[in-house]
Design brief:
This protein is α/β, with parallel strands linked by helices. The protein folds into 2 domains: 194 residues, Rossmann fold (3-Layer(aba) Sandwich), CATH 3.40.50; 89 residues, UDP-galactose 4-epimerase, domain 1 (Alpha-Beta Complex). 39% of the residues lie in helices and 18% in strands. It has a 7-stranded parallel β-sheet, with helices on both faces. It starts with a strand and ends with a helix. The structure holds nicotinamide-adenine-dinucleotide and uridine-5'-diphosphate. Uridine-5'-diphosphate binds next to helix 6 and strand 8.
Length: 308
């Protein structure tokens, strides 16, 4: 198949392109390189079936494709808050452009949605039927509401135009090829620990997240795209939940770092807890994460050691 991956030069997108190429597909990677990097896709250049194009999803584009994975959107709070209006346009206008392309080419299209559609959740773990607790006017709204609107667009294109959609809600995922300056917690803590710099723990560190290693996530994403019955939304993530203080301590231990933890103010609207209920993915695909946190952190630490 010929497959378009928007945001293909980013962290998840580059792993996805690699997986698809190794399965024998032709891959077009589309990216504006806002948070993505050529270094992430350089290793893919030797695949004859790989091409990349510098393009912004808020502008329409034409290609004859069989499948579309729509990943274009900055995912780290510091990057998506840098130009929030652009973030909304990327999610909303980008979704309209991708869905228009899917409609014309009759391609199956997958949306990389997010656990952020649940906002600061009042129930835990979060099930797909939970409608969320998002502050629509806060500093995270550009991302959360942009992604929620994109989900609405996907289901309306499905109902109104019969577009073959797949929607996944990704929970915090980490691994090699995260950018040194990405700003998300796992890469921040590892880079700070390897440099023996202070570990920046926001708030008192009692907020929780649950982290999925990239290989597990990509495996679930591709398997969900390939099945023929379910549109989603389906949660993909690792249900092992822990506090950010525990994460900081674990990273310090694994890197044998001399870093000290410093507490910085908690950003506005920072969700207090987040943990996926993955029963739906389990029942549909028999999918669940295989890589334990410390194993995934070790691999990620090795990656950052190699590039720092
Ligand atoms: P990332 O920032 O590394 O990758 C995003 C990619 O999209 C980058 O290559 C960036 O340059 C590109 N991009 C941004 N705006 C664009 C635009 N207007 N036009 C074209 N390209 C554009 O982030 P990631 O972690 O790889 O996330 C990929 C997708 O998965 C995002 O849509 C994100 O919302 C979603 N997601 C990721 C996570 C996670 O934990 N990694 C969690 C939930 C959802
Ligand atoms: N965080 C932190 N220090 C950092 C970066 C993030 O303590 O240097 C916290 C952040 O406040 C949040 C959690 O780690 O509670 C996860 O943040 P991240 O930006 O990775 O993703 P989020 O899940 O908030 O979108």
């Amino acid at each position: 198949m010929r497959i378009l991956v928007t945001g293909g030069a980013g962290f998840l997108g580059s792993h996805l392109c690699e997986r698809l190429l190794k399965s024998g597909h032709e891959v077009i990677c589309l990216d504006n390189f806002f948070t993505g990097h050529k270094a992430n896709i350089e290793a893919l250049a030797h695949f004859p079936k790989f091409e990349w194009v510098r393009h912004d999803v808020i502008d329409p584009f034409k290609a004859e494709v069989d499948r579309i994975y729509n990943l274009a959107c900055p995912a780290s709070p510091i990057h998506y808050q840098l130009n929030p209006i652009k973030t909304i346009k990327t999610s909303v206008v980008g979704a309209i452009n991708c869905l228009g392309l899917a409609k014309r080419t009759r391609a199956r299209i997958l949306q990389a949605s997010t656990s952020e559609v649940y906002g600061d959740p009042e129930i835990s773990p979060q099930v797909e039927s939970y409608r969320g607790n998002v502050n629509p006017i806060g500093i995270r709204a550009c991302y959360d509401e942009g992604k929620r609107c994109a989900e609405a667009l996907f289901f309306d294109y499905h109902r109104q135009n019969g577009v073959d959609i797949r929607v996944i809600r990704i929970f915090n995922t980490y691994g090699p090829r995260m950018n040194v300056n990405d700003g998300r917690v796992v890469s921040n803590f590892i880079v700070q620990a390897l440099r023996h710099e202070p570990i920046t723990l926001y708030g008192d560190g009692s907020q929780t997240r649950s982290f999925c290693y990239v290989d597990d996530l990509i495996d679930g994403m591709v398997r969900f795209m390939d099945q023929d019955t379910e549109t989603g939304p389906v949660n993909f993530g690792n249900p092992h939940e822990f506090t950010m203080r525990k994460l900081a301590e674990t990273v310090i231990r694994l890197t044998q770092s001399r870093s000290q933890i410093v507490n910085l103010p908690l950003p506005n609207d920072d969700p207090k807890q987040r943990c996926p209920n993955i029963d739906k993915a389990k029942q549909l695909l028999g999918w669940e994460p295989k890589v334990a946190l410390e194993e995934g952190l070790q691999k990620t630490i090795l990656y950052f050691k190699s590039i720092l």
